[in-house]
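Quick question: what would this complex look like in 3D?
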Amino acid sequence: MEPAIEVDGLVRSYSATHGMVRRRRSTVEAVRGVSFQVARGELFGLLGPNGAGKTTTIKILTTLLLPTAGTARVCGLDVVADTRAVRTRIGYVFGGDRGLYDRLSGLDNLRYFAELYAVDPRGLRARIDEVLDLVGLGGREGDRVEGYSRGMRQRLHVARGLLHRPEVLFLDEPSIGVDAVAARELRAVVAHLVEDGTTVLLTTHYMFEADQLCDRIAVIARGSIVAEGTPAQLKDQVADDRVVEVQVFGIGEAEVARVRAITGVTSVIVEDHEQAQALIVHCERSLDVSAEVVAALDGVRVGSIATREPTLEDAYISLVTAAEDG
Amino acid sequence: MPRRLVRIWLLQVKQMSRSSFEMMGAVLLPLLFATLAFYVLRAGTHPHALLGASIGAGLMGTWSTVLFGAGSAIDHQRWQGTLELIVAAPTPLIVVLLSLTLATTTVGIYSLVATMTWGAILFGVPLDLVHPAAFLVAIPATIVALATLGLLMASTFIVLRNANALANTGEFPIWLLSGVLVPVALLPTWVQPVSSLLAPTWGVRALREAALGGSPWRAIGACVLCAAVQLALAAVALRRVERRARDRATLALT
């Protein structure tokens, strides 16, 4: 069976002009040769930091942007040549507050988009009730969207994306800005869709979300895919590591360089956590470098220190930092 | 498809009618235009010209609403993130945009009716129409004429991030060219062929002739014909524009 999504050597660059008098053109490559395949019924995750090229890739696949080079096929159809046919088969949901008519009720929003997707008018009300139930908005559909909470809006978005029973659903950071309970409910809805046979391409920042939901994940950084595999396979990439996490207050470049120079240390990352920072040191599994790390941090206030097994998040961060440093 | 067009149109009207800003414009502009029409024309010596002026003033308001409505509707859709969703849907963009401009025209045609009503109530402008039936047919024909011209202009709004700025420059030339402001016959001869290609010119003429006497049905026919040409041109323009927008990434703000 042909894959649901086939992306081959996808490139997208944006050009911008600067200056009022002397116009200069500059080109930014947002996606640089991305290739991957998603099988039918699979839940595929595209993971990467801001500006990595996730949304650009999704926008090319949902026919909103033209690729500069390379090809993309959805359900066997080319996104550039067979635009209309692709559009009938896909659903597109993005995160955040936008994309709804605030002054209309949830029901009117769904009616409007059902018209745009040519949903059969005879079964329309039943279908609307079905998607409302699925996302848990039943009973609130008569209210104007401007009174909805962030979580309710997001659920209405998902309902909108499902009205026409798409074969492939694109979810671009759907849980951004929704609270933990709403995000968990959203994950349950996504899991339910995949059980029903919908192919889902999900982008997210949240590692546990990808770990919990995705069959396979591609990590994208600076416009290129740096790793691809099941969550377990990605974790295996750092399985030979041991992680030392140190809470520090006001660490400088010099100390980080000293830690990096310790024998056996493979990578050092500093994360800002409000007043404190977390120094995450990856080292070879056979070594315990905690003592050397503390010694290297001479002069810096140190809080807690812990040695632990690497997580998917560690795998992700080390992949992304390696790509960004390279 | 027609059913879909009508349903999208009605939902757009619903959405627009809930914006107090847009409604304020629709209510206040006709008052302003009716007053202007009265004071400008009262100085003249043709009392019957007042009804013609009232229609012209009403149509000025309608065209403003159509043009700014279409411009701000596209900006607004881009801003609220629905423009991308409209483009990503399988319904051809022209159907959605036509229903959108029809919606703004529906709100705008109220301006015509209100201007005439205000003119009658406040300034005693006579409302005795010579061909009332033709007048009733000329109204929807003019709606279509204005909406399809608005659609043609709206196609350029999709590629430009600041559609409203362009809408500003489209207001006066069309007022002039379509004979809303002054009769087309008074324009320089080289301009007149351009005017006769614009469907609103024939709509204005149809409304005037239906109200004041003449052969409104011929003008209605010409209006519908020109509107069909405008629609065809808009369809071609939109296909190009959509591709260009996908190439230049102007559908979204981010």
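Answer marked as accepted. The first strand of chain A starts at residue 5 and ends at 18.
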